[in-house]
Amino acid sequence: MGFSWQEYWSGLSPGPGIEPVSPALIATQENTMKDTDIKKLLYTHLLCIFSIILSVFIPSFFLENFSILETHLTWLYICSVSATAVNLVLYLVVKPNVSSKRSSLSYKVTRFLKCCIYFLTSCFFFHVIFVLYGAPLIELVLETFSLAVILSTFTTVPCLCLLGPNFKAWLRIFSRNGRKKHRACEENGTEAQHSETSSVTHHKRVTSVWENSLQITTISSFVGIWLGAFPIPLDWGRPWQEWPISCTLGATFGYVAGLVISPLWIYWNRKKLTYKNN
Amino acid sequence: MRLGSGTFAAGCVVIEVLGVALFLRGFFPAPVFSGTERQAESPAPEPSAGASSNWTELPPPLFSKVVIMLIDALRDDFVFGSKGVKFMPYTTYLVEKGSSLSFVAEAKPPTVTMPRIKALLTGSLPGFIDVVRNLNSPTLLEDNVITRAKAAGKRIIFYGDETWVKLFPKHFVEYDGTTSFFVSDYTEVDNNVTRHLDKVLKRQDWDVLILHYLGLDHIGHISGPSSPLIGPKLSEMDSILMKIHTSLLSEERGALLPSLLALCGDHGMSEAGGHGASSMEEVNTALVLISSAFERKPGDVRHPTHVQQTDLAATLSVGLGLPIPKSNTGSLMFRVVEGRPMREQLRLLHLNTVQLSKLLQENVPSYKKEPGFEQFKVAERLHRSWVRLYLEGSNSEALANLGAKVRRQYLDALRMLRLSLTRRAAQYDVYSMAVGTVLVLEALALLLLGVPQALSSRAELDVPLLSPVLPLLFGLLLLALAALHVVVCTAVDSSCYLCGLPWLAAGGVMALTAALLCAGVSALTRIFAGGQCLTQTPPQSTSRWSELGLLSFLGTVGHVLSLGASSFIEEEHQTWYFLINTLCLALCHQIYRHCFLGDDCAPQRCPHTGEEFDGVAVARQGKRAGPEGWELSHAPKDPSSLEALRGPERWMVLASPWLVLACCRLLRSLNQTGVQWAHRPDLGHWLTSSDHKAELSVLAALSLTMIFVLVQKRCSLTSKVAVAFGLLGIYCYRAAIGNVLFPWQQDNKDISKGITEARFVYVFVLGILFTGTKDLLKSQIIAADFTARTVGLWEIHSGLVLLAALLLRPHNLPVLVLSLAVQTVMTQFIWRPLRHGAAAVTVMHYWFGQAFFYFQLWALLGLLLGCYSLGTRACCISSSVLESPSRQTQPPPGLASGCSCVLRTALDRCTEHPAPGPGGTEFHLSLQPCP
Fold first, then answer.
1. What is the ipTM for the molecules in this complex?
2. Angstroms from B300 CA to nearest CA on chain A
3. B726-777: pLDDT as tens digits
4. What is the spatial distance between Cα B828 and Cα B836, in angstroms, rounded to a whole number?
5. How far apart are CA B733 and CA B807, in angstroms?
6. Torsion of CA B325, B327, B330, B331, to 10 degrees
7. Which of B445, B488, B489, B574 is close enough to B499 for a disulfide, judged by CB 3.0 to 4.6 Å?
8. Of B585, B595, B640, which to mutate for an interface test with A (greatest number of A Cβ within 10 Å)?
9. 0.80 cut: is pTM over it?
10. Chain-centre distance of CA B720, in angstroms?
11. Is the CB of A204 inside 8 Å of chain B's CB atoms?
12. Minimum Cα–Cα distance from A179: chain B residue
C-alpha cells in the first residue's frame, strides 16, 4: 500500500515516528494502526455527513412540497432514520470494537431491546431537559419530542452502536480524567475544548480513536443545539425561528461539524494520543 | 502611596457614577422651553403696513364652554376601530355623521400619564430629564393653558386623576381627585368621577370642565386590551359622553357661542396592556372634538387625520381666547378654525407662528438660517399685503385668493418650525457623552487592572505617585485636553453642557480624565513588567479554568454583548433563564462527577496557587482568578468531602440541581414578560382574576408561612417574633385592600386602604433593620464577636425580605419563597459541599438575582421598553423607580432583592469562609451591582 496517511495530510513534512530503531518498532506499529483507524474514521464520518445531506435532497423526489422548513418534522424523522441506519450499518461493517464473545440469538435480541429502551429513555430525558429550558409544557409536545429524538439520534445512537447498552462504558468515555460527563449536560462550548485537552494529558479513559471521536461529535451536537436556541427571541420573524427548527438545525450542524472536526483533530494530535491497548 | 482596596473600589464607583451622569446629561436632550419669565406682555399685533387699524387685542374665544373628557389609555382603535363601532355607538355616530372633528393624536414617549398631561396643556415635549427635574416640585410651573385660563378669570372644575390636583394645586374652583393607587379597581375610580357629573352639568357657573377617567387604563394593566372588560368600560364612557353632549347642546340654544367637548386619550395601550414605550399602539391616541361649530354638509366624509398631541394646547388656547403657552411646540389644528372669517384665521395662524418663532429664537442660536423662520418672514410679509388689501376694501375674489396663499404659507411655516423645534429636542450633546464614556471606560480599566492586587492578601494597592515620568505625562495630557476643550467649545455652535460649566469645573473633569489615564498607563506598564518575569509558568494557567468559571465568565460577557440587539433587551429574561438553566446543569454535572467518580484532579490543580496568588500574572486570567486561587489553596485538606456524605444528605445533594431547575421552570410560567410572548396565558393572570381569590388567598398564606420558616432560622428570638408579626401584618394588609380573603371576616366591604396595616409592617421592618445594624456595630467594636456579626447580617436580611414581601403583589409571593428556598438549597447542598469560591458564588447570586427579578416582573415592561428605545439601560432603572411613586402599579422590589442579593453574598462569605480579609469583602460588596 503506497499510500501514507501522514503524507496525505501533512504534505512535505516527514512522517513522524517512523524510525527504524528497534525499541521504537512497537510504537511505529501502533502508529500505523492508528493511522488506518483514522482513515477508516474519516470515511465513516464522510458517509454519515453524506447521509444527512441526502436526507435533505432525496425525499423531495418522492414527497410533494417537501422542504426542511415547511415539513420540518418529516425531514427530521427522515434524517433521524437515515442517520441511525447509516450508523448501524457502518458500525456493523467496520466493527471498531472487538465484538462480544457470546453471539447467541437471545443475547442479541436482549441487547437490541436494551438499546431501544436506552434510546427511548434518552429521548424522554432530553424532553424533560427541554421543558426545563422553557419549551412549552402542553402545546407543541410533538415538536419538542421530535427534537429530543433527533438529539438522541446524534448522541445516543452512536454511543449505543459503539459501546452497546453498557452504562459503565458510557461513564468511562464521558468522564474527563475521572469525570462523568452527565449525558444531558448541555454546557458551554468550552466543555468540548476541555475534554480534548484533558484527553491529551490524561489518556487512561479512552481506548480508541473511535471513542475519542464519539466524545467530540456528542459534545459538538450539544453545543450546536445550545447555540441553536439563541435566535429564537430575535424579532426577525423568519420561518426558521419557529420553536424546534433552529434548535434542530443547530444540533445537525453541530453534529456535522463534530464529524468533520474529530478526524482532523485526532490526526493533528496523533502524537500525543496514546491509547491503552485492549 | 498605598490605598486600601475598599477605598479604591469606592473611588472607582464614584468616578463611574460621575461618568454615567455626564453621559446621561448629554444623552437626554435638554427640553425645549421658553426661559423668559411670565409677564403680561401684549400679544403680537396683526401685521400691517400703516399705523391705522391695528388689531392688537387677542381674538375672541371660539367656544363659551369647554369640556375635556380625558380617558386614560384611550387608544385610537378603541374609538375609530371595530371596538368603537361595537361599544361606542354614539361616539361613532358623531365621528361619522355628527358635527365633530376626529383626529389620531400622536403622543411622544414616555407615554406615561404625567408627562402626557403636561404635553397636552403646555404643548411642550417633556423629556425624561423633565421627570427628574420636576421631582421636587410637583406643581407645573411652565406656562400652560390652565394657568392662562385661571388668569383670564375662567372657572375650572376638575374631577379625576389626582395627578392634576398635584400639578395645579390652586387652579380649580372645585375638584375631586381619585387615586390611581389601586390598579385592581376599575369601577369605583370612574364612578367617583361620574357621580359629580349630573350636578355640575345642571349648573352654569363654570367655563372649563375636565374629567379624567382612569378605569380603562386600569383594565389594560390588569388584563390587556383584548380583555372582555374593555367593552363594558367603553360603553360606559360612551354613555357618559352622550350625557355630556346632550346637556351641552340643550344649554347652547340660548348662548352666543357654541361649546366644545374634547374626548381624548393621554396615551395608548400596548398589546400587553402596559404603556410607556413608543410602539404604535401606545403612541396613537384618539382625539375627537365635538362642537356645533363643526357643522358639516351632508355627504361630507371626514376621516381621522394625524396630528401631534401637543397641538391640542394651542387649539385649546385659541378656543378659549387665551394666549398660546410660551413653550408650546404644537401648531393650531387648522380644521378647528376653518369656519371662521379669513381675517381671524390669518390672525390666529400668525399668533401661533410668532410664538413658535420666538421659541426657536430662544433655543437655536442660528435661528435665522432655519427654513421655518424664513418661511415665517415670507408669510408675514404676504399677510401684511393682505391686510392692506383688506383695509382698502378690494374685491373679494382677489382677497380670497391672496388669503388662501397666505394661509398655505403660514401652515408650511408652522410645519417647518415645529419640525426644527422637535429636532432640537432630540439632539444629543455628543461632547459630554464622549467625555462621560471616556471617564467610565477609564475607571473600568483601572478597576480591572487593580483587581488582582486589591484582592490579594494585603488588600492594598500601590499607587506610584513619584515616578518621574508620570507628572510629565499628566501635565502633557492635561494641556492637550484643555486645548481640545477650548477648540470644541468655540467650534460648536449648539449649546453643550460641559462648555456651559464654569471653567474650574470643566478643568476638574479634564484633570480627572488625565489622572485616570495616567494611573491606567502606569498599572499597565507594571503588569507588563511583572508579566515578563512570570512567563515561565504558563502551562498550568489553562487548567485553572474550571468549567463553571468559564461558564460564568462567558455568560456574563455574552449577556453584555447581547444587550447590543434590541430583541435581546426586550427578551432579556430569556437570556437569564437560559443562563441559569445552563448553570444548574453545569452544577449538576460537577456534583455527579464528584459523587460518583471522585474528583482526582483537585490535588493537581493546587500546587502553584500559593506563591502566585497575589502575583500579577493572574490578571491575565480575568478578575476571578484571585479568589479562586484562594479557595483552591484550602481544597487539598479534604479532597472528596462528598464521598463522605451518606444517606439522605447525599440524595439531597444529587437532587438539588433538579429541584432548583424545577423551581425555575415553575416560576417562569408565573408571569409572562417580554414582548413576543407576553400575550400568552400565565399563572399570574389566572390567580389575579377575581374568580380565583380563594386560591390566591391560600397561596399567599402558604407563601408567608414558608417565608417565615425559611427566614427565621438564624435570627435572634426578638427578630423571629417581629418577622412573624410582620408577615401577619402583610396578610392583613392584603386582605384590607381586597387582594385576598380573610378567613374570619367574609363580608368586609369598607375599603380602609390598608394604610394602618402597611404602617404596622413598616414598623417591624424598621425594627428588625435597627436590631441588625446594632448587632453589626457591636461586632465591629468587639472584634472577636463573629456570631453577632452573622446574626446581624441575617437580621438585616430578614428585614429586607419582609419589606419585599410587603411590596410584592400577592401572586408573586411564591417568587420570594422559592428564591429563599433556592438560596438555602444552593448554599447547603451545592456551594458548601463543592467549596465554590466567593467570586463564583457572587456571580451565581447575581445571575439568580436577575432571573428572580424577571420572574416577578409583569406590567412594568412598557416602561422598560420605552427606555430601551432610547438606548440606555441606566435610565430604565431610574425611571422605573421614579415611575413607581407616581403610579404605584409596580413597587420596586428589584431594588430590595438586589440589595438582599448583595447581602446574601456577604452572609455566605462570612459563614463559609471566615476571615478572608476585610478588604476583600468590602471590595466585592461594592462591586456587586444591584439588578
1. 0.79
2. 42
3. 998 888 888 877 777 776 665 555 555 677 778 888 888 899 888 888 888 8
4. 12
5. 11
6. 60
7. B489
8. B585
9. no
10. 36
11. no
12. B593
